[in-house]
């Protein structure tokens, strides 16, 4: 199968893009897809030689670099839509490059045959309207975000409402939202996966001491980890409130990621007297270095289509706390291999769980062991196999439509 994949960037530092990279490598290696990746930036992905006219050897990934421009994110995305389409039209007209399917993780192009839905901006827009957001960013930033969400929700209505576009969601929750917003009853659910060789309890324990020492964490510190780039949505305010209610516990919080509203959260931590308990880092390509330093993964998210770090933390044998608004919560059995908050803003419930896990090391051990067993069922090989079946079905449907004219 010759596949065009359209994504602004692919790397190992962001959940959606890391998921895409894992999938593409397996589609190429296991299913011998000829993958043409149209992106502005590609990091940490096994690529073939630069694209040349004519067919390529099956089982390779070729990067077609799409130009980018500086400026506000909204302007960058508008040019991205224009330029990735232009690059594909050029390759078709000049090099005769035709594709069996065009795949997009989200609304990255108008002509996708298949969309893998990792985030739903209709839902994120609804959350952004929350009046509490006003304190976290300035007027210009909020105005830009509203305009950006307006564009993306318009694209979602345009693309996701087309019955000829095959949709796959990363969780049952996201599939339910697609049905609610766009009346799509035909969405395939294909959960994300985890690399059990990279993320495992044995590896976490082997690397734990060095990772904690480098960050100056004491053995008696109870280290909570949060990974993500939208701290408001990931529930950082709820974590702060819960930490404030657990002053008697030697809590430390490791936050990995980037957020334009970081100054607001840093000031909030200082105002609440939590500044010395928090450590801030950027996301790492080798994410295992974050999990090995932690005692528990905490993400009381307000909305997350899946929540890949939760599954990776489980694979490492860490107890996890997330919310019912994360798609990954549907693979967790409450109190057995993790904990799910029904209300992501319930800081009292979160504080109670944090104390319980701190005071009961045997419970942490049992929950972590069960979590690792649960995560073993969700591999990238399973993800690739289900995606391959989905792509073959989408291709057959496309051919039948073309035959009917």
Features:
405 residues; alpha/beta; Rossmann fold; 2 domains; 7-stranded parallel sheet; 6-stranded parallel sheet; 14 helices; 45% helix; 15% strand
Number of helices: 14
Low-confidence runs (pLDDT<50, min 5 residues)? 131-135
Give the termini distance in whole angstroms.
Answer: 22 Å
What form results from the Cα inertia axes? globular
Q: CATH homologous superfamily name of the largest domain?
A: Glycogen Phosphorylase B
- Strand order in the largest sheet: 5-3-1-6-7-8-9
Describe this structure in words.
The chain has two domains: 217 residues, 3-Layer(aba) Sandwich (Rossmann fold), CATH 3.40.50; 175 residues, Glycogen Phosphorylase B (Rossmann fold, 3-Layer(aba) Sandwich). 45% of the residues lie in helices and 15% in strands. The strands form three sheets. A seven-stranded parallel β-sheet has the order 5-3-1-6-7-8-9, sandwiched between helices. Strands 12-11-10-13-14-15 form a six-stranded parallel β-sheet, with helices on both faces. A two-stranded parallel sheet has the order 2-4. Helix 9 links the parallel strand 11 and strand 12. It has 405 residues and is an alpha/beta fold.
Helix-strand blueprint:
Layout: E1 2-6, E2 9-10, H1 15-29, E3 34-39, E4 41-42, E5 60-65, H2 73-95, E6 101-104, E7 114-117, H3 121-128, H4 139-160, E8 166-169, H5 172-182, E9 188-189, H6 201-214, E10 222-227, H7 231-234, H8 236-244, E11 251-256, H9 262-271, E12 278-281, H10 288-291, E13 296-299, H11 308-315, E14 320-323, E15 339-341, H12 347-359, H13 361-375, H14 380-404
Parallel strand pairs: 1-3, 1-6, 2-4, 3-5, 6-7, 7-8, 8-9, 10-11, 10-13, 11-12, 13-14, 14-15
Helix pairs in contact: 1-14, 3-4, 8-12, 11-13
């Amino acid at each position: 199968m010759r596949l065009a994949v359209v994504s602004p960037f692919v790397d190992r530092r962001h959940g959606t893009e890391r998921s895409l990279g894992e999938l593409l490598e397996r589609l190429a290696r296991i299913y011998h897809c000829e993958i043409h990746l149209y992106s502005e930036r590609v990091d940490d992905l096994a690529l073939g030689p630069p694209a040349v006219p004519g067919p390529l050897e099956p089982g390779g990934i070729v990067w077609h670099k799409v130009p980018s421009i500086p400026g506000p994110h909204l302007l960058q995305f508008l040019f991205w839509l224009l330029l990735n389409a232009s690059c594909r039209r050029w390759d078709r007209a000049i090099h005769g490059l035709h594709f069996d399917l065009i795949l997009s993780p989200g609304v990255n192009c108008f002509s996708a045959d298949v969309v893998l839905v990792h985030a739903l901006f209709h839902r994120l827009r609804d959350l952004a309207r929350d009046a509490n957001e006003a304190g976290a960013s300035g007027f210009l930033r909020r105005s830009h975000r509203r305009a950006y969400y307006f564009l993306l929700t318009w694209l979602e209505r345009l693309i996701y409402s087309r019955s000829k576009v095959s949709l796959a969601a990363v969780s049952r929750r996201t599939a339910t939202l697609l049905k609610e917003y766009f009346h799509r009853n035909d969405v395939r659910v294909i959960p994300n996966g985890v690399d059990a060789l990279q993320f495992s309890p044995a590896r976490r324990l082997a690397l734990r001491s060095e990772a904690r020492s480098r960050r100056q964490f004491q053995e008696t510190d109870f280290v909570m980890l949060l990974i993500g780039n939208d701290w408001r949505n990931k529930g950082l305010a709820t974590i702060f409130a819960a930490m404030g209610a657990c002053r008697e516990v030697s809590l430390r919080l490791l936050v990995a990621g980037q957020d334009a509203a970081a100054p607001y959260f840093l000031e909030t931590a200082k105002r609440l007297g939590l500044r010395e308990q928090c450590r801030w880092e950027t996301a790492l390509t080798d994410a295992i270095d974050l999990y090995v330093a932690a005692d528990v993964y905490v993400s009381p998210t307000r909305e997350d289509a899946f929540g890949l770090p939760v599954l990776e933390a489980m694979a490492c044998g860490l107890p996890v706390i997330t919310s019912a608004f994360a798609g990954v919560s549907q693979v967790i059995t409450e109190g057995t291999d993790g904990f799910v908050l029904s209300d992501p803003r319930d800081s009292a419930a979160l504080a109670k769980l944090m104390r319980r896990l701190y005071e009961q090391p045997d419970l942490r051990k049992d929950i972590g062991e069960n979590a690792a067993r649960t995560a073993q069922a969700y591999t990238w090989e399973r993800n690739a196999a289900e995606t391959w079946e989905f792509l073959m079905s989408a291709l057959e449907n496309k051919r039948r439509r073309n035959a009917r004219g």
